[in-house]
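Something for you to look into today, if you have time. Could you write out one complete protein record for me, on any chain you like? The space below this message is yours for that.
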Amino acid sequence: MENKKLIECVPNFSEGRDMNIIKQITDVIESVEGVRLIDVDPGKATNRTVVTMVGTPEEVCEAAFLAVKKASELIDMSKHHGAHPRFGATDVCPLVPVANISMDEVVEYARKLAKRIGEELSIPVYCYEFAAFEEKRRNLANCRSGEYEGLPKKLQDPAWKPCFGPAAFNAKSGVTAVGARNFLVAYNVNLNTTSTRRANAVAFDIREKGRPQRVGNPVTGKKAVDEKGNEIWIPGALKACKAIGWFIDEFGIAQVSINLTDITVTPLHVAFEEASKKAQERGLRVTGSELVGVVPLKAMLDAGKYFLHKQDRSTGIADSEIIKIAVKSMGLDELYPFDPQKKIIEYILEDNSKKKLVDMTVAAFTNETASESPAPGGGSISAAMGAFGAALGTMVANLSAHKPGWDDKWLEFSNWADKGKTYMDQLVKLVDEDTNAFNKIMDAFGLPKGTDEEKAARKKAIQDATLYAIEVPYKVMELCFQSMEVMKAMAQFGNPNSVSDAGVGALAARSGVLGAFLNVKINASGLDDKAKAAEFISKGQLIADKAVDLEKEILSIVELKIQG
């Protein structure tokens, strides 16, 4: 029922010229269900291929391990030459949190992967960035110093004993660095100039490293040094930001090319705004921007909400509309169309092959419900009623935020709209999830029951599926009831012209509660754990009683408002 945890893995393999070898490595990645191969970027000069995959954590780690294993079979580091620093067949293998997962969790996955590589493949492994066990190993450059050629000596140094795997030189595979780092976004800002020098000036203004301080003339003067002879640098405006200016022949413009190494520190929209500000100070104008590669959904939603807030507009609207605002505000479609389905990781990973109830028209959904099939049934309809109820509460909040004369209240109503939309989105997901829960029970009943072992496995599967079929409608009950706080607030002080909509929202939410409760009760009757079943019914009854009382309270407010 919860949103999936997603991580990205970006292994770098020391082979960029033999596409047959690269294909064999990517084939094993694609063999793992739950993992999507996003990008394969081979480089001849570097003799290195950067691969990007995304998926659920366990599956991504499995795909990464298989890829490291295949690379160890196919790549011989004793014969490798390339322009990029390297010390292993799989040189680096970072894991990156994408959605619904903390960095601490990703660190644990990285260390488990590193341990498995070391023990099962006999490859020395260093853990770096957030996965490092000591400070000096956080920096990848420190771990890789001396490169492949320096490994025989380095591995004999107790200070550089591998985190996992043997402290012995593996001539064929070298060493692999496994890390956990934040998501990196490659992002270019377009300028109304053809001057690389001017673009570089803006880049130095914003990048964390900044520019060297000079004596006398700030451009041509001698670089300033401290008492130890080290160059003195003037920091730029943005943390976790690398940037440089360049000219793009294809479009005939200069760009500020930016790498945002931690979008939790400097988000996309902050980089855009700061680049725009610095460009304007130099007599330039940002005309748009370009997203290279993919981006997490949250980054686009955060950007869209930021620009909506600048307009004093409510953010409790459809994600697609929020993304549209982000695209238009940052000019992400200036050079070519921006397709969210190809640029946003969560959308790329969506399985569109399965028929979803929520993707049907209302008429088709109604007809599907009326058919001879037992699903969708009351559970899905209860979730749908609750989603419609929450949608009405959200609508009233949005109308209130946009009401003429109420400009000073827009943020308060925007917050209510956000809350309503959160309930609505979760309930929409549960429309299909209730049907999935029913199908799990049917699948469990269809399992073989010949041997005692098969009977036991079948019984367990039936009980697990039954419990899930209780948990889903119980979650619907909770969300429907909780969403009624939005309808009550909107009935009390929302746009008075829409008070009836708040009332209808309350009716729909209460019906969602009571309808889902019937599903909890009928499925609880099939649960062998009678104590747990009784607990669900007892807690469900409390929610149902509260929902009925709250509905009456909201409707009394609505009636009074209608009567004036």
Q: What stands out?
A: The two ends are 43 Å apart (CA to CA). Residues 185-349 form a domain with the Alpha-Beta Plaits fold (CATH 3.30.70.670). Residues 193 and 254 are 6 Å apart (CA to CA).
